[in-house]
Amino acid sequence: MSDTVQDPPVKPVKGRGPTFVTRFLESRHLGWAGLAIGLLAPFVIATPYAMDVMTSAVVFVMLAVGLNIVVGYCGLLDLGYAAFFAVGAYTSGVLSTELKIPLLATVPAVIVVTVLAGVIIGGPTLRLRSDYLAIVTLGFGEIIRITANNLSITGGPSGIYGIPGLFGDATSSQVVFYYAVLLIVAVAVLLAARLGRSRLGRAWRFVREDEDAAEAMGINTYKVKLAAYIAGAVWGGLAGVLFAAQLSAISPASFTFLQSALVLMAVVLGGMGSTPGVVLGAIVISLLPEVLRGLADYRFFAFGVLLIIVMIARPQGLWPHRSRER
Amino acid sequence: MSQLIWNGLFVGSFYALVALGYSMVYGIIKLLNFAHGDLYMLGAFSGFAMLGAMGGLVRSSSLVALFVVLILTMVATGLSGVVIERVAYRPLRGAPRLSLLITAVGASFALEYGTRIVAGPNPKVYQVRLDGTALHVLGALITWQQLALMAVSIVLMVALNLLITRTRQGRAMRAIAQDPKACLLMGIDVDKVISRTFFIGSALAGAAGVMAGGYYGKIDFLMGFIIGLKAFTAAVIGGIGNIPGTMLGGLLLGLLESFGTHFVGGQWRDVFAFAFLILFLTVRPTGLLGERVTERV
């Protein structure tokens, strides 16, 4: 009997293969194309207002890429990301105005301080369930903002002004500054993307997908999560330096929960864990208010509704990450 | 001294009312409902709208009017809570925790800025202001209105505790907290019970909102943000998911803040409270009464 039962011949399932669009979206040259668009933008429009908006957008990209390390790669919800932005901006602002040094010279100090802040907040809370982290970071964001509001060294509610430019000259042209910021941010985006594909990056994704399994495979999940949190903190702090250099004045009003939520929105909308998606999301979120000036009242309401819809209908975001390691 | 204690207990009873909703929802479906603080704000605004609609009646007998509005608002915010759960959270049951948290942030945003669109960005002044003659008790100034509000909070909390420990409904909630899948097998309509939990929690937050509106006299669309954080802190201090613990945590947070404000200064009040949150999560993440797992809701 048994010889009559034959296994049906296995037909190889033939997929359609990647379409042109998919191949384009995953192209390795996409980053260069994005950089080229950024480099060429001032040739199209270079009014002071446009340069200001574009510089802000690029700084926002840096923030979003930093938060993407925490939320996208590692799956930890950080609702107080503006706190690291503030820590970076205030550290560099205070040091450069008190010591009369250019902003770039404060970068080592900024890195040290943001790493410390990351350890202080992440250290105790990353051992707990991930949702505790969300609310602690929310509280931390408020603590930093209120502290900056109350201390005298941070200038109180009116903040710090007269911060020198990146190279110590407050009078450098907007276009030069834009290119400097663009190059710094491009390097930061590249670094974050490389970090996401490194050994540590794979560990982050593993922890995000299944923490217990990751632990069982010998990953020290606590250390790995802390590393993601600290990396996010450093990226946020450096974005703060750029922000201080751009505005040459900072005040606590720039670092509210709204700011954190907007960065989160960019990451979620673009696609958590996907570098091109997050960059695009950040550009859209930062340029949108300039385009839709009249709808300012409805903007945040729409953001809230959009967050819910994206999570229910398309949790991977508009431009999701596709793993190359299958 | 006794004034500080009284102030702390009074503010703490507000925190406890809001924190209870947080704690119940967390206990049952392990979701941090960020929109909870905004339901408190919604309660204050719907109370404001109702008082406006009642017009002349408010002036003649303000405390009675406020009481009627309190009941109606509890129903209104309770239903809003149910709608939020149905629209935003139920489709994601079983989804990764991160998606749920992000949805909760989205719901909070939608409520805050939706209210802003409807009511406008400027703070509103409540029609009813509760400030009356003060009594001197052991050196502390206590007004009748404070006593009335505190009595209402205590009645609500005791009623909630009875509901959870003594009724079928409460038993179903406690069962779901332990094992939702088994509950489904035992014939409990899990979705319905979760809906009711949201109703109760949101109604309590709405009640606190109306009382805060009547007491502080000023409401705005972002008032729920800080109180939501504080309520969470209270829930963590007491032991999140544990009802008596949450009440205790609320009162304790009120006392801590009252004394902290006195000794450190008012502008540091919120920093003080959140620093306590981080401290508690480091030292004792289960909270003061968190170990009694059998009583969890």
UniProtKB/TrEMBL annotation, chain B:
Enumerate the Pfam families for this protein.
BPD_transp_2 (PF02653)
Name of the protein described by the UniProt record: Branched-chain amino acid ABC transporter permease
Q: How does it sit in the membrane?
A: Multi-pass membrane protein
State where the protein is found.
Cell membrane
Q: Where are the transmembrane segments?
A: 6-27, 39-58, 64-84, 96-114, 134-164, 198-216, 271-290
Q: Please report which protein family the annotation says this sequence is part of.
A: Belongs to the binding-protein-dependent transport system permease family. LivHM subfamily.
Name the source's superkingdom.
Bacteria
User: What's in the keyword line of the UniProt record?
Assistant: Amino-acid transport, Cell inner membrane, Cell membrane, Membrane, Transmembrane, Transmembrane helix, Transport
Q: Which organism is it from?
A: Actinoallomurus spadix
